[in-house]
Amino acid sequence: MILIDKNKRQWISLCVCMALFHNYFYTPGMILILLLYDYDQNHTIKDILIPILIGVGMATILWLPTGYLILNNHKSVVQTNLFNLLIPNFTLKGLVYDSYGCGLTVISWIALFQGIQFEKTRKLSILLILMFVFPMFSYILNGTLYARTKILVLCLPLVLMILSYWLQERKLNKGLLVLASLFLCTKTMLLGLLISLVFIGYYFMDKKECLMTYALVPMVVFTGFNYNQCIDLKLYNSMYSKDKQKLIQGNDLNQRTADLDQVGYSVNRIYDPKEMKASSYTSTSNSLYNTFIYDIIKSPISQSNRTIITDSENYLYLSMMGIQNVLSKDSNLYGYKEVDSKGKYKLLKNKNVFPMVYVTSDTMSESEFDKLFYPYNLDTIYNCTIVNGETSNDYASKMKLIKNLDQSIVIQNKRKIKKTIPIDFDTKNKLICIDFDVKNYTDKKISISINGMKNTLSKKHSVYPNRNKHFTYILSKKELKQFDVTLSKGKYKIYNIRVYTCDMNVFDRVVTKVKPLKTTSIFKGKVTISKDGYLVTSYPYEKGYEIYIDGKKQNIEIVNKAFVGCKIKKGSHTIMIQFHAPFKNAGLGISVLFIIIGGFWIWKKSKNL
Questions:
Q1: Which end of the chain is more exposed for a tag (fewer CB within 10 A), N or C?
Q2: Is residue 346 part of a domain?
C-alpha cells in the first residue's frame, strides 16, 4: 500500500512474488486487497495489474507444480452448501474478539459504518461490511476450500485505514452509530459497544487525559479474551522437550521415527534434521495415503479431522511405514526394545520393521484383497503385497473373533470419566483389535480412549468433519491385563462391539531389503533376488516419481493400495528412485521469462521516475 501511495507500483511485482513463495494460500486475498485499495485511492486498477501479473509469473516455479499436486489430492473438508454462503452471519468473528480473524474491537465495526458518510471511504466501507457479514467472501478468498473467516485478516490494513480516517475527520454520524449497534447483540458485543461509546464520548469532547486511561482497555480486553489460549507449561514441555531432543540427537536413526507422546501436537514436529516421520498435518493430504492409514489399516482417528495423520502404536502402521524408532513414556510395545532414555521419555527400537524400500514375491491381487473385511484384511496386507493384476496367493487371515457383544450401551456423562475393564482372555504377544459403532445424540464432539489409544467423532458442523462413526483400536502391547477406558462427556451410544485377536508371530514377514547407497536422489541401493517379484516402497504415490533399475526407467505401479512400486526381475540390480514435480520445468521456464521481463520493466519505470 505504501508503494501505491508513493507511486512506485513497479516494485509490487517483487512483493507479490515473495508473498507467493512465503504463503501462496493468502496471496490471492492479498492481491484483492491491493486492487481494492488502489481503486479506492485512485479510482482505477489498470496501473497495478501489470506488476501483479509479473509477480505471479515470477513465482510460477512454485505455485504451478504445488497447485497441481493439491488439485490432484483430496480436500477433507465439509461439503459447502452454496445457499448457506448467502445467509448473513452477524457473529463478526472475522473482525472482532476472535483469535482466528482480525482480532479487533467493536470500535472497528463502528468505524466501518462511520466510513460510509465520507465519499473517500464510502464504497470501501460498504464492501468491507459485506465481506465480514456474508460467508461467500471468505469462501472465495479461501479458494473454495472452506468459508473460514481467518482469511479476512488480510482486510486488517483497510479497516485500520478507515478507522484512522474517521478519527482524523472527527465527524460522528449518530444514525450510522445506531445502525452499527443493531448488529451487536451478544453480551461480549454489548460490553464492547459500551466501552466504545465511552471512547467516542471522550474523543469527541477532546478529553485527552481520559483517553490516556482508556488506552489501557485494549490490554485488559486482550488479556481477558486470550488467557485461555495460552499453552500450559506441561504441554509446552512435552512439545519442546529437551529430553526428546537429546534422545534423537544422541542415537542413530536409520529409518523413520514416531512420537507417541501428544500425537496431535507432534505430527509436524522434528527434533533434528535426520529425523524422518510418517505423520503429517496439512489442509490437503495425499488421498491414497490418507485412505491407507484410516480406512485400510484402521489407525485410530484421534483428532477432530482426518487431515491430521498422527503417529499410532498400531503395529501395521509402525511396521509397514518402516518406523524403526519410537519415542514414548511406555516401553510396553510389542517388538520394540528400549535402547535409551532421558527423563520420563524412552527411545524404543525395532529392527524388524519393513525397510523403506524392499523386494518381495509374496503378492495378492487388488481384486482379491478388496473382498476382505476388517480386521481380516490387516494381517493379509502385512503378509502379502497388494498389486494391480492377477496373481495367485492362498494366504488366509489368522484373525479370530473372541467377543461379539450385540447389546447397545448409552453413555450420558456430564464430565469425562474413566473405567477399568478386566480382561478374561490371553493377551500375551497378541494383537488386539476392538471396534464398535458410535451414534452421537448431541452436536458436541466425543472421544473414547482405550489404553491410551483415542478415537474421536467430530461435531456435526466441524470445518474438517472426520465422520468417524466406527471406532477401531489396534493394540500391540506385549501384554495387557485390563482395558483402561476414558469416555468423554456427552450423550452417545456405542453398539456392535467386537474384539479380535491374532498372534503377533503372524506379523513376522521376511522381505529382501534393498541396501541403501549414498545418493542425492530420494533413494539409491543395490539388491540381489533369486526370482521375479515387486519392488515395494513406503513412499505415498504421486505423479512425478521415477524408478530406474540398472539405469532403465520402469513403469511405476501403485502397490499396497497407496505406495510407489514396480515389477523387478531376478538377479542383481541397482535401484534409483527420483521425484520430479509435474510442471516444474514449465514453471521454471515461465519464471525465468517473467524475471527478465519484470527486471527490464522495473528498471524502465524507475528510470522514468
A1: C
A2: yes
